[in-house]
Automatic annotation (TrEMBL):
It holds the Pfam family ADH_zinc_N. It comes from the Bacteria. InterPro entries: ADH-like_C (IPR013149), ADH-like_N (IPR013154), ER (IPR020843), GroES-like_sf (IPR011032), NAD(P)-bd_dom_sf (IPR036291), Zinc-ADH_QOR/CCCR (IPR051603). It comes from Caballeronia sordidicola. Residues 10-314 form the Enoyl reductase (ER) domain. GO terms for molecular function: oxidoreductase activity. This is Oxidoreductase. The keyword NADP applies. Keywords: NADP.
Length: 320
């Protein structure tokens, strides 16, 4: 089978398609023929050498969808999807024609999603699920402010609305209306924190900050008493400051989330929890901006590194 490989870190030029032996499954594993595998910014960072846990040589890629071709009889021919914080880093990843996964990680993809759409769900929606459902434990009727409505923030807004929360989006400049956001606030406008506190009746129950860094110092002021602040990033800087007395007088909670700690099995359980929302139309798959054959993976990685709007997907196997 063909697989994308890198033997050293660097820009996408270090990636090459190699011919490898087809994988075989052990008693607790299955082999998936990969029909689609999205490329995440973390995959680009992985190739660049910014993920210290990665061992080389390695096949990158976290998200996938495809069909089971080897494993337990009840799974043969099943259309599945998956993702993991281990795959592509400490075990070979999804940017290949075939992939070995634990049987316990197998879950059927939503019937109404194409393989390309299903492969583009993983990292964004799993991160949002970890933040909104697991970490913040958002409840119906609560108010959540989401800083940054990119892939993860947009997924978080969808999850929050399905839970029954009131959603305030926070971003730079003007934003178009969204069915998943009750109000939008311009983070570049004067007094925008006061506007958020007004919209959330004195402060948000949950603030989900997808930006981090210097925005953290603003995010803590958006919280109501006993509010929960969830952080997943440190975009412009890692070291931040805030008034500790104000923080504990407000009885605020600070929670960090790192989806690289969720392997294929635990990530698969989250995708299974998300499946009903896609099948009933509560959640929408992201727009697929471009698809590339495996042989064009360098160009695909460069597109993601350049900040292409929408998802970039590799299609390792033909479905003809």
């Amino acid at each position: 089978m063909k697989a994308l490989r890198f033997n050293q870190h660097g820009d996408p030029g270090v990636l090459a398609v190699e011919e490898l032996p087809s994988p075989r499954a052990s008693a607790n594993e299955a082999v998936v023929r990969v029909f689609a595998a999205s490329i995440n910014p973390s995959d680009v960072k992985n190739v660049e050498g910014r993920m210290s846990q990665t061992t080389l040589p390695r096949t990158p890629g976290r998200d996938y969808s495809g069909v089971v071709i080897e494993g337990p009889a009840e799974w043969l021919g099943a259309q599945v999807w998956g993702s993991g914080g281990d795959v592509g880093f400490t075990r070979d990843g999804t940017h290949a024609e075939e992939l070995v996964v634990p049987v316990a990680s197998l879950h059927r993809k939503p019937a109404n999603l194409s393989f390309e759409e299903a492969s583009a769900i993983g990292v964004n929606f799993i991160t949002a699920w970890c933040a909104v459902v697991e970490a913040a434990q958002l409840q119906a009727g609560e108010r959540i402010a989401i800083i940054g409505l990119g892939g993860v923030g947009g997924a978080a807004a969808q999850i929050a609305k399905r839970i029954g929360a009131n959603v305030v989006g926070v971003g730079r400049g003007a934003h178009s209306a969204s069915a998943y956001v009750d109000a939008m606030v311009d983070s570049q406008a004067a007094g925008f924190v006061d506007e958020i506190r007004s919209l959330t009746n004195g402060g948000a129950d949950v603030v989900f900050d997808t930006v981090g860094g210097s925005m953290f110092e603003t995010a803590v002021h958006m919280l109501k008493v006993r509010g929960r602040l969830v952080e997943i990033s440190a975009t412009d800087r890692r070291d931040v400051t805030f008034n500790l007395a104000d923080f504990y007088h407000n009885e605020s909670r600070l929670i960090g989330v790192d989806t690289l700690k969720r392997d294929l099995v635990s990530s698969g359980a989250m995708l299974e929890a998300l499946r009903a929302g896609f099948e009933d139309g509560s959640y929408k798959a992201p727009v697929i901006a471009q698809t590339f054959a495996l042989n064009d993976a360098q160009a695909a990685y460069r597109a993601v590194a350049a900040g292409t709007k929408g998802r970039v997907v590799l299609t390792p196997q033909s479905r003809a």
